[in-house]
């Protein structure tokens, strides 16, 4: 009994020490992976060594928005915002306190807006980044990840084949009404500019992606309106180019 108790204490101390020592390294690895995912949404591949350099090179600006679509001027860094904590504010009656991060990518003279998204799949959280072109309407690229979706089914959201379907889709219709991009079971009809094919056998995860995109993108509509060069508040003109 004494020996067992001593071993439990020793192992606990060793594990605690290892966790403390590896903590900074784990946090850095998480930051690098996040940078890689953001870069993937704009079509830039990077490895662990290059990710931070490329991120700083291509991401021209990081801003934080409030629920009114206004830029928040404080010490909050867009990169460090935890989407889960922001979504949890809805459960505690603090919806008006939510903050929304936005990353701005500049290529030559064109701007692209990268929006982080987070939702729920079949077995756990799903997340990703959706990059919009300068018109704040057309999808330039997408990157999705998951924690525990089924390989060959829901986990397919992290494949290039699934993600590339989003390229060129639009989140507003011709009248300027918000539609988001839907993941459609059975496949999107030919010519559908707002739909992509769902994952065969992964209906719940596919629905989770649709819900995630619709709910998250809607939070950015006030910002899209405020950036409209016509100065109009009508939905019809939201999709016009800002370049």
Tell me the fraction of residues in β-strands, as a range.
15-25%
Please give the radius of gyration in angstroms.
Answer: 20 Å
Number of helices: 6
- Kindly report how far apart the N and C termini lie: 74 Å
Q: Percent of residues in helical segments?
A: 25-40%
Overall geometry: globular
Q: Could you give the order of strands across the largest sheet?
A: 1-2-3-4-5
User: How many domains?
Assistant: 1
Structural class: alpha+beta
Sheet bearing the most strands, described?
A: 5 strands, antiparallel
**Number of DSSP strands?**
7
Instruction: Report the uncertain regions.
Output: 229-243
Structure description:
The chain is of the alpha+beta class. The protein has one domain. It contains six helices and seven strands; from the N terminus they run ααβαββββαββαα. The protein has helices spanning 2-41, 51-58, 83-91, 160-163, 203-218, 221-226; strands at residues 59-65, 100-107, 110-120, 125-132, 139-146, 182-184, 195-197. A five-stranded antiparallel beta sheet has the order 1-2-3-4-5. It has a two-stranded parallel sheet with strand order 6-7. Strand 3 (110-120) and strand 4 form a beta hairpin. The chain is globular, with a radius of gyration of 20 Å. The termini are far apart. The model is unreliable at 229-243 (pLDDT under 50).
Please describe the topology of this protein.
Blueprint: H1 2-41, H2 51-58, E1 59-65, H3 83-91, E2 100-107, E3 110-120, E4 125-132, E5 139-146, H4 160-163, E6 182-184, E7 195-197, H5 203-218, H6 221-226
Parallel strand pairs: 6-7
Antiparallel strand pairs: 1-2, 2-3, 3-4, 4-5
Helix pairs in contact: 1-2
């Amino acid at each position: 009994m004494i020996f067992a108790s001593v071993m439990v204490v020793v192992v606990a101390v060793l594990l605690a020490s290892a966790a403390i020592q590896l903590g900074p390294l784990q946090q850095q690895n998480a930051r690098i992976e996040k940078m890689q995912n953001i870069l993937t949404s704009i079509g830039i591949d990077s490895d662990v060594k290059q990710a931070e350099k490329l991120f700083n090179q291509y991401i021209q600006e990081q801003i934080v928005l409030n629920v009114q679509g206004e830029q928040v001027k404080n010490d909050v860094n867009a990169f460090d915002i935890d989407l889960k904590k922001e979504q949890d504010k809805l459960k505690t009656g603090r919806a008006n306190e939510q903050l929304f991060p936005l990353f701005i990518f500049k290529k030559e003279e064109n701007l692209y807006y990268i929006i982080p998204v987070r939702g729920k799949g079949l077995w756990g959280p799903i997340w990703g980044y959706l990059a919009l072109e300068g018109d704040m309407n057309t999808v330039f690229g997408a990157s999705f990840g998951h924690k525990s979706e089924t390989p060959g089914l829901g986990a397919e959201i992290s494949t290039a084949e699934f993600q590339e379907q989003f390229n060129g889709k639009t989140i507003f219709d011709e009248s300027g009404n918000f539609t988001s991009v839907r993941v459609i079971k059975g496949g999107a009809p030919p010519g559908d500019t707002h739909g992509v094919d769902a994952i065969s056998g992964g209906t719940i995860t596919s629905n989770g992606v649709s819900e995630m995109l619709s709910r998250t993108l809607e939070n950015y509509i006030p910002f899209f309106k405020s950036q409209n060069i016509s100065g109009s508040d009508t939905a019809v003109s939201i999709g016009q180019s800002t370049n």
